[in-house]
């Protein structure tokens, strides 16, 4: 089994469940995502997004530079206000996003379903994939959904399952992290994360037979997480060493904006705008002055990407190490 194929499925899930499902080409094909990104490109489950006209300067890593023109050997010419003309890899301006038609086709092929049997429930969000009969007289109806942490999406899917009369025989595959929030409309149903069930391979998902056969009713998580950022959106909480920290709306908006910025277009001004801040001296660290440990932990979370350094005050740089 190729670890890159498993990692590719996990990266694809992260993209699919992101509010802005695009990733910068340089991030996709280098660093921690290199092997998984190359795997996704080989399997053609990603398509080219809109090229960027403004990117973070590859020379200084701080200023936003304008893309002037294409150069030879897969390079582009940037004009940085500090560095002047800079040559950079063309991947820096490229973006990629999941191809939803290819995703659904790969799921159906992996599950042995008819390629014409998919039915959209909510456009580009959730689908009924089709029905199999692994045991005679016991059909299973398969569904796939994104953004299941959003109550309206979970409710819409639950209503469709009720209309289909498949409450007792449905299996839901999702790209969302599990478990779902307490009180989710899907509590009690069989919900599984795609990356835990399958790997991406040759234009289809290869499902692990033992995991696919084991039903898993969705129940609220009882164990207290150690250190986790997965509850920022659903519960407005951050867990650090087992302790929960409640987030104010301004904290939540800052963390979500950074977590969803996979293409690295966001600078300090864009972050301020995304958070709706009207402060004349906007500073992320000062916004977290009452819970500095949350800010420090999040900075460590971002330490693998130097492009985020432009929003980290100099006095806080030691938290990166």
Give a verbal description of the structure.
By secondary structure, this protein is of the alpha+beta class. The chain is built from 12 helices and 16 strands. It has helices at residues 3-16, 25-28, 34-43, 100-111, 151-164, 194-197, 209-213, 232-235, 249-259, 268-275, 284-287, 292-301, and strands at residues 23-24, 46-48, 54-56, 64-71, 75-80, 84-89, 95-98, 119-122, 126-135, 138-145, 170-174, 191-193, 198-201, 204-207, 237-240, 243-246. The protein is globular. Residues 304-321 have low confidence and may be disordered.
The DSSP helix count reads: 12
Helix share of residues?
Answer: 25-40%
Global shape? globular
Indicate the radius of gyration in whole angstroms.
21 Å
Distance between the termini: 34 Å
Number of strands: 16
Main sheet makeup: 5 strands, mixed
Low-confidence stretches: 304-321
Order of helices and strands: HEHHEEEEEEHEEEHEEHEEHHEEHHHH
Strand content: 15-25%
Helix/strand-derived category reads alpha+beta
User: Strand order, biggest sheet?
Assistant: 8-9-10-11-12
> Quick check: average pLDDT?
83
